From TrEMBL:
<keyword id="KW-0675">Receptor</keyword>
<keyword id="KW-0325">Glycoprotein</keyword>
<dbReference type="Pfam" id="PF07562">
    <property type="entry name" value="NCD3G"/>
</dbReference>
<keyword id="KW-0297">G-protein coupled receptor</keyword>
<feature type="transmembrane region" description="Helical">
    <location>
        <begin position="742"/>
        <end position="762"/>
    </location>
</feature>
<dbReference type="InterPro" id="IPR038550">
    <property type="entry name" value="GPCR_3_9-Cys_sf"/>
</dbReference>
<protein>
    <submittedName>
        <fullName>Vomeronasal type-2 receptor 116-like</fullName>
    </submittedName>
</protein>
<dbReference type="InterPro" id="IPR028082">
    <property type="entry name" value="Peripla_BP_I"/>
</dbReference>
<comment type="similarity">
    <text>Belongs to the G-protein coupled receptor 3 family.</text>
</comment>
<keyword id="KW-1133">Transmembrane helix</keyword>
<dbReference type="InterPro" id="IPR004073">
    <property type="entry name" value="GPCR_3_vmron_rcpt_2"/>
</dbReference>
<feature type="transmembrane region" description="Helical">
    <location>
        <begin position="618"/>
        <end position="642"/>
    </location>
</feature>
<feature type="transmembrane region" description="Helical">
    <location>
        <begin position="707"/>
        <end position="730"/>
    </location>
</feature>
<dbReference type="InterPro" id="IPR011500">
    <property type="entry name" value="GPCR_3_9-Cys_dom"/>
</dbReference>
<dbReference type="InterPro" id="IPR000068">
    <property type="entry name" value="GPCR_3_Ca_sens_rcpt-rel"/>
</dbReference>
<dbReference type="InterPro" id="IPR017978">
    <property type="entry name" value="GPCR_3_C"/>
</dbReference>
<keyword id="KW-0472">Membrane</keyword>
Amino acid sequence: MDGDVMITGFFPLYTLGIDHSNSDSTRQDHTPFIFKNYQFLLALAFAIEEINKNPDLLHNLTLGFDVYDVQFGAWRVFKTPFIWLFGKYKIPNYSCMRDSKSIAILTGPLGITSARIGTLLQLYRFPQFTFGPFDHALSDHHKFPALYQMAPKDTSIATAMVSLLLHFSWNWVGLFTSQDENGLWILPELKEELAKNSVCVAYELLISSKGIAHIIRIMAVYNEINKSSANVLIIYGDNESLLDLMLFIEHILMKGKVCIMNSQWNLKTRRYFMLGSLHVPLIFTHYHADVSGFTDFVKTVNPSKYPEDFFLAKLWFLSFNCSDIESDCIAWDKCPHDASLDWLPRHIFDISMSGDSYNIYNTVYTVAQALHEMLLLQTEVQTMGNRKWTAPSPAQLHPFLKNIQFYNPAGDQVILGEKSKLEPEYDILNIWDFPEGLQFEVKVGKFSPYALHGNQLSLSEDMIEWAIGTAETPHSVCSESCGPGFRKSSQEGKPACCFDCNPCQQNEIANGTDMEQCVKCTDHQYANTQRNQCLLRDETFLAFGDPLGMALACMGICFSLLTAAILGMFLKHQDTAIVKANNRTLSYILLISLIFCFLCSLLFIGRPNTVTCILQQITFGVVFTVAVSTVLAKTVTVVLAFKVISPGRRIRWLLVSGAPNLIIPLCTLIQMTFCGFWLGTSPPFVDTDAHSEHGHIIILCNKGSLAAFYCVLGYLGSLAMASFTVAFLARNLPDTFNEAKFLTFSMLVFCSVWLTFLPVYHSAKGKIMVAVEVFSILASSAGLLGCIFVPKCYNILLMPNKNSLHVFRYKRHNRRNKH
């Protein structure tokens, strides 16, 4: 299309590996044509026609274009630019460059193609626009001073990809990047973003497309890729660098992987994701607004509208069967008259504008805006200096291109300077497979870096087609999440995503997933069996309402009443021989002390408080000391009574004077001294036990100073052993009313109870510990009562004939006659 100013495009319209040295015309006619790439030419034509119709741009100046097919290969890529610059039969740098109205050059979409052509074009200062994906190798302005990249830089691609991983809870991925400047740039960006969001890299492959050694390397890590639990693979590269290797991997190595890819992949150039593929491609492409009128324009395109476009003619002949079967000649009248590019399947030719075509559209408007500004400036200069209008040269366009910014007709802002470019938004595409290898790109989501954090990614999961044979979302984690009640424990030598799940310890909880540490419940709380929640403990103690407490309280009251009844009986029969024997006063003291011994057990039952805690131990120590010292006094009295031989002996004086009775106050005073020391240093206090019973907090009395407690208990034990020893030595003394044997048995029971008490008490916990102490008090007191007073009660109630002084004297007289 001719115009006052021309834009030249070098587009790859044929597939790789064409042998142009073959002059066979039939061979050339059957050269594989890239139908999809023809949209580049249509986007160029559409934009130029739209600008030429715009009265506000380029007054009295029209744009035109010419398009050349660029060939692949290190040297073939220069063939078409040489012809364009010098003519088909001219020698470069020998004859002058032919006259050309071209003011800008379009190259792409591969960066390597633009780089090779750019080394030639920069010699002539032609503004070169590359419409392919942003290539970091082309951003060196010292090497490519006249080159401009229209595609936005992938500044947020790492964030976008990682946000998709987080959406599906994928934290175990593989990385597959090309060993070029783009791959070396994205790799640290990806790693940093992955580490920031606790996503681990299972394996990492940095591959170059050159050499068989890289294929061998991939085969060497077969087990790492194919058998790895990482079912997600991030691939960042382009067709030229990785496609051949990916075809190899597709059929040989990987199975059942989700591939997250960037927009530089031209999946339709090679049928990479074939029918029956077990892969799931999720592709991030640059979002762009819909260009109004483009699809309608494409539908109207036909060879009669553009008769000089032999590319369109070839596409038409190949697509609509315009050959005569009999003569094998191409005839226009054989083509359908109403044929349209809209008839072609979308996997062959898509009439909706692609990302590369949108960059071409923006390129044309960029050139037009720069020309418009240059013409305005030139008009001012002409008006002031009365100069003639001169056609603009390509080199004059650069100052106007450096910082150009404008809004295109679609409403998007176009910024050419790399530092001023906006971060791109991304559409997320999924490839749907159909029979016969047909494929359909479906938009399933979007990523916007301008949205609020947490709302940047929007996704329609129900539209994603996962691997064939499964409808569930793939799983890609090194270790399954630790649920509530468990904490993470790292595995030595492995990434943070690989861990073991260990249950929380006793009274610790983890109420979330993947918690690093368990949280300890407070003392008034306890962990439930699942160890995911702290529950409030129920307060408990040995209460009167508990069956155990009620039984012990009843026993204490009953024994105390029984002891009181025996005391009443002794008072009633105080003049009898049995009551008088062995000092009835001591018997009264012992019975009264036993009443208090039984009643002091009630202090251990019920909700403890400071007063009861102090009274428990002090009353226990003093009352039992009185009881045991009374038994000791009775034993000593028995011994002294039978040691009396003559009235003048000193022993008789001790017995008559009541000296044994002094044992009670003396022993009690010593015990009270111990108790006073106990209260003065570390008295008993109210305490809680949160560990003995699950789900309960036990209210109990802490003894304070254990040393003082064992001193009191030890002193009491010493008195008991002394009483037992004396009673045991006097057990065989004669006479009817001798109670030495009963005293011996009583102290034997007493000592046995408290010797058994010590190990049982220390092995018990909580309320049971208190119950053991109460039971020991009742048992030892009952032992004293039963062994000493039950035989006397038997004689008083059932054998009254034995309870007289006459019987006592008669037995004594008979014993003397025998001797």
